[in-house]
Amino acid sequence: MQKPTQIYGIRAVLEAINSNEPIDKIFIQRGLRGDLFRELEGTIRKNQINASYVPIEKLDRLTKNNHQGVVANISPITFYELEALVENVMEHKKQPLFLLLDQLSDVRNFGAIIRTAECTGVDGIIIQKKGAAPVTADTIKTSAGAAFKVPMAKVDHIKDAVFYLQASGVQVIAATEKTSKTIYELSFKRPCAIVMGAEGKGISPSTLKAVDEKAKLPLLGEIGSLNVSVACAVFLYEAVRQRNQFRIMNS
Fold it and tell me: Which of 111, 112, 136, 227 has the least CB density, counted as fewest CB within 10 Å?
């Protein structure tokens, strides 16, 4: 049976949080008051759940049910803990490949990236708890079901994942135009993780400072950037190309 993707009502959402349901985001009506509402706010802060305060019209569009001022989106997938995901992959793969998404916000871009990640053998996708695109029905559809196949983890900050991966022997490469190096000057043959930034904003400055390498795609036309899902596909397939070439040379 497919898991529900939405719950509504203050008590129901509180119960879902306390039951460790994988909540992606909570929408709260502006101006709510009362003890139960304050309890919900405190629980949201304690569990660092992504929440937005919105007009009642937004909630009315999200559900036709009696939402009582609160609607929560539940992820249809289960997220791993970062440590468990990385340790399991490192134990079984000599050349693991991870993908870090720094506050990517568009669910269709997210779905397209997951689909490409599955096709290129990515071993795990890591996103941030706050500010990241949720796994919605649109994400699942755009991913062509790949969202159920690629393990994913959530972290408080992408920078934390960068440090943990580096400590685990994984090279972290940022996709950014803020470098003179192109993608074709770097090696993706060792265990590595690729960081993709948010639409418009790119990778956060603190994460850029933490990575091992930065690389950009050569842009030969007049438009200054690619869609993030397209850029991600180019990076991932360059990793595939280099690793296949390496295997052929050493076979």
Answer: 227
8 Å CB contact between 73 and 6: yes
CATH class of 6-74: alpha beta
- pTM (2 decimals)? 0.83
Under 8 Å CB-to-CB from 15, ≥6 apart: which residues? none
- Specify whether the CB–CB gap between 107 and 133 falls below 8 A: yes
Which CATH superfamily is 82-249 part of? SPOUT methyltransferase, trefoil knot domain (3.40.1280.10)
What are 160-185's pLDDT values in tens digits?
A: 999 999 999 999 999 999 999 999 99
Residue whose tokens read 């506050």 = 103
Q: Please say if the pLDDT value at position 140 is more than 90.
A: no
- Domain residue limits, the chain: 6-74, 82-249
Residue type, 25: K
